[in-house]
Amino acid sequence: MLEIKNLHVQLEDEDKQILKGVNLTVGAGQVHAIMGPNGSGKSTLSYVLSGKSGYEVTDGTAILDDVDLLDLDPEERAAAGLFLAFQYPVEIPGVGNMTFLRTAVNSQRKARGEDEMSAGDFLKFIREKAKSLKIDADMLKRPVNVGFSGGEKKRNEILQMAMLEPKMCILDETDSGLDVDAMKLVAEGVNALRSEGRSFLVITHYQRLLDHIKPDVVHIMADGRIIKSGGPELALEVENNGYADLLAEVA
Amino acid sequence: MTVASKIAADPRLDGLTVPAGGWPTTARSSALMRLQTMGLPVKRDEYWRYTDPSALVCEAPLPCDPLQTSTPIFGTIDKTRLVFVDGVFDAEQSDNPDLAGVEITRLSEVNDLDLHWAQGLYGKLEEAGQSPVARPLAALNTAQATEGMLVRVTGKPKKPLHISYRQSSKTSEAILHHVIKVEAGAELTLLETGTPGARSNVVLEVDIADGGTLHHIRPQGRAHGRHVATHLFARVATEATLKSFTMSLNGQLTRNEIVTEIVGDDAAVHVGGACVGDGDAFHHDDTVFITHDAVNCESRQVFKKVLRNGATGVFQGKILVKAGAQKTDGYQISQALLLDGDSQFLAKPELEIYADDVACSHGSTSGAIDEDAMFYLRSRGVPEKEAQNLLVIAFLGEALDEIENEDLAADLQSRLEAWFSRHST
């Protein structure tokens, strides 16, 4: 599914290396988690994969099902099946949530040479998805993320994920700013989307989220590299002992 | 320079005579005298600091190719239409002006028709609006105009009155002067659309009596080479409402002045505009002056411009709160979205307040498109151009929200969308 090889990234504006050779392979249908201390490059990895400007890839590749993502514009990556759930979803005044979602769904369909979804079909589709995430009609009508609570913003991210049906989902600290109930709701939304053809890369600081979204593989990232990979037990180890032991082990 | 030498130096004014035609002649003569005293505007005038008026006052209009009409604006809305072609009324293309609740008289036909209400207004609101700032183009208009409509609103007509401008000649000059009197408790929606001529000078004098309402919606036509000066002079009485909205796409030089005096308590004035400019020949200027001279009144100015490829936008907006105009609620915002580094927005927001119990605020911003929002949209699969159009239309949409009638707002919105989809290459 997703294969990242030797990925080196630096900031465009300053001579600062952030990713220093990331290697990561996520198989179809798998859930991988990335944990790591602040500043280890986790969020940078998610931005670079989804095509945010300001970063320069100096070496390496990131292939999603035969497509080299790093050559593509953000919208092309999305059409190729990549989705990033933002840590801080952006507020867009004046653009209705529904309009935004319909434009996104149909843009991707168009890019893939598929027919656009009719207004009726779209409405039916979004109502069904929104209901399971407890997103009411009012939230669909309001401008994108404007005035949404932290929990509403994250649920809105998962709604977009459900509507766009990506192959590869990256969740960037989706648990940040959520209370226990909201986290559960979001995790249920994610779990409902798990399937053989869809993989997840879950970036988190805390093991807590992984109680709800059970990973197949856990990676520890530090100083721009993945320093250790293992099963779900690795997350528990971090939760109990912190990163210090792991970092010492590698050093 | 003395006033006298200014007159002597301006051959354009020497040859001016006042058109004959009934009682307006008096107002015309008075306006010509006032004009000769103030002289035509020049770039060094403080009020023309950001906009060069020379193309508006040179001897002959610069040529402007008329725009081929496509789908008529507000085409699906039932209305009574009065058509002016190159500044001249065209009865054949117009609807029968029988609209219950409205009396309509053509300016060129008044002669000595006794229109007491109009005689008290024609040129009078324009003259009152000459202080504290001279507006010579408006005086020129009063002195020279022979065309326009005198509209008295006595009821609440079921449909909007539509003044529709069309340009057919490449070099036409249109000078139009309309007077709208909204009687107590009456209400009118006035649509004013299109390009009057290659060069045009349009004055609208509006008097709204107690409890009256005027909605004025003005999409200014898309002819690229047009030069336009407009003035809206309004006097707003107790519990009366004026809402005026202008949309400007294209055009070479546009100066829209709005001068409003709130003279009765509990009245409201909302003026707004959305403007889209493309190319370094584009120059668009909104100049607004709102005077509060009564208690507990509200005024709102909401102006948004999207500028690209070297276009220039100007906003000069002032709220004057006179002594005694307590409980005034004045709001003013002017914002520009600059789509490249070559475009510019010049803003001069002003407040002048002589009462102590008022809430007035003004703000002005200019900036580039929000890169975070762009990335967010694109990461969801929306292509770059489409994402930009969505954000630009959302930006202008906040100005369109000022329009109360949703059907009219939707028509303007769809025109904006069409403009951006045509121009996003």
Largest interface: A-B, 32 and 23 residues
Overall morphology of chain A: globular
Corresponding CATH architecture of chain A: 3-Layer(aba) Sandwich
Portion in helices of chain A: 25-40%
**Helix content, binned percent of chain B:** 10-25%
Pfam families (chain A): ABC_tran
Keywords (chain A): ATP-binding, Nucleotide-binding
InterPro entries (chain A): AAA+_ATPase, ABC_transporter-like_ATP-bd, ABC_transporter-like_CS, FeS-cluster_ATPase_SufC, P-loop_NTPase
Protein name (chain A): Fe-S cluster assembly ATP-binding protein
Task: Give structural notes.
The complex is a heterodimer of chains A (251) and B (425). The two termini of chain A are 31 Å apart. Chain A has a single domain (2-250), classed as P-loop containing nucleotide triphosphate hydrolases (Rossmann fold). Chain A has 251 residues and is an alpha/beta fold. Chain A has helices spanning 42-50, 74-79, 97-111, 119-132, 137-141, 150-164, 180-193, 208-212, 233-241, 244-250, and strands at residues 2-11, 17-26, 31-35, 55-64, 67-68, 82-85, 92-96, 143-144, 168-172, 199-203, 217-222, 225-230. Chain B is 21% helix and 37% strand. Chain B contains ten helices and 19 strands. Chain B has helices at 3-8, 11-14, 24-38, 54-57, 116-119, 124-128, 136-144, 371-379, 384-400, 406-422, and strands at residues 80-85, 88-89, 102-106, 149-153, 161-166, 173-182, 187-193, 199-208, 213-219, 227-236, 241-249, 253-262, 268-278, 283-292, 298-308, 312-321, 329-338, 344-353, 359-367. Chain B has a ten-stranded mixed β-sheet with strand order 2-1-5-7-9-11-13-15-17-19, with helices on one face. A nine-stranded mixed β-sheet of chain B has the order 3-4-6-8-10-12-14-16-18. In chain B, helix 3 (24-38) runs antiparallel to helix 7 (136-144). The longest helix of chain B has 17 residues, at 384-400. The radius of gyration of chain B is 21 Å and the shape is globular. Residues 1-8 of chain B have low confidence and may be disordered. Classes of the chains: A alpha/beta (251), B alpha/beta (425). Chain A: Belongs to the ABC transporter superfamily. Ycf16 family. Chain A: Pfam families: ABC_tran (PF00005). Chain A: This is Fe-S cluster assembly ATP-binding protein.
